[in-house]
Amino acid sequence: MNPGAWRLTRPLFCTIACTMNALSLAAQDDATLKFVDEYRKAYAEGRDLIPAPQRTLDLSSIAERLDLRTVTPEGALSGSAFLASDGTIVKLAGTQGCLSTEGVEVAGLQTTCAMASLAGLTATLSEAGAAAGNAFPCHFLGQNAGTPTVRFAECFFVKDGEAQSLSEMLIARGLAFAARNRAGRAVFPEYAEAEESAQRARAGIWANAHFTHPFGERRYRGNRSTN
After folding, report:
1. How far apart are CA 77 and CA 118, in angstroms?
2. Crossing angle, helix 31-44 and helix 113-131, to 10 degrees?
3. What is the pLDDT of residue 219?
4. Residue 216: per-residue pLDDT
5. More confident residue, 113 or 160
6. From CA 134, how far away is CA 147, in angstroms rounded?
7. Which residues of 22-61 are buried (b: 16+ CB within 10 A; e: fewer)?
8. Least C-beta-crowded within 10 Å: which of 6, 27, 48, 214?
């Protein structure tokens, strides 16, 4: 692993280990912890409890009428969704975490593909929160009916004077993938470019020779000679 990749993935050592340990803890006295624990355990087992959008998301609104609202995350629920302090679930519309339970190596640590994505969002939320005072703005694209409330959004934070997309950072680090529509096209084309760059750099999950890509159930096959 090159030094740049090491600096990006080093925080995952503790995060993956801590996340895995947290999955075994009973949260008997805290409803929020129980809720988070339930979703995390399911995701670690390859089950995503967060439903898809019930209606077509208004993707054009990001460019045409950006409306940012401050969100404070409580904890990652999957590789691409988190619980907000108001009790709603925020699902990042532009990215999709890995849901496979097959083994992979990330930052020198043996884990599963799903756990790598879950830990990746946990670490990135912490990093984004630290840069934004534990809260950052999100633009909401749609919402599902029912309980718990699931809102679909793209979230941003400012680091080193530049606005950064939470989704794009996850994808660029090889910890999640560009979300795609039913036709197989990336919801946001620039995120597909970030995924291709991560693949070329063999960042995060892409460092593994084989794993199941979340779209099309196709197997990614890397260059064994460079492993």
Report:
1. 7
2. 140
3. 54
4. 59
5. 113
6. 25
7. beeeeeeeeeebebbbebbebbbeeebebeeeeeebebee
8. 6
